[in-house]
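INSTRUCTION: Work out how this chain folds

Token vocabulary: learned, describes local backbone geometry

RECORD BEGINS BELOW THIS LINE
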Amino acid sequence: MWGGKIHYAVPMMFALGFLFQFLIAGLTGIMLSAAPFNWQLGGSYFVVAHFHYVIVGGILFSLFAAFYYWYPKMTGRLLDETLGKWHFWLFAIGFHVTFDIMHIPGIMGMPRRIYTYEPARGWDQWNMIVSIGAVIQTVAISCFVVNLIWSYFRGQI
């Protein structure tokens, strides 16, 4: 990208988003490689947040970039750029609202792999924010699905 003419089309936005997400995933991985830190947070939501930064941020963002790039070549129709940008921004914002915030209850000691937790532990408001981020990501995926269906039948050839 250095010295090139970068066009911020949807595939490039997802590719750049991948770089940013994977950087954070690597930094939290370095944090977990420190034995005392890992001993304290090994079974907490911090690890869940780190794992999702690797999986969702590392894999899903790059898959979306590839899909937006290759879809016109596979179907012969262009995806709607405006819906694609809505998809990117809603997904990126929802992703960070969900998984950035998930680090906080992890540091506060919230264990992973529980279906419920005691009230008044201080995790309630953080989990509500995490849930709101998940809803934002769902809206983003809905934009993606609408874009696929609309573009397949009505997209520019």
Helices lie at 10-33, 35-41, 45-75, 81-107, 124-154. The radius of gyration is 18 Å. Residues 75 and 122 are 50 Å apart (CA to CA).
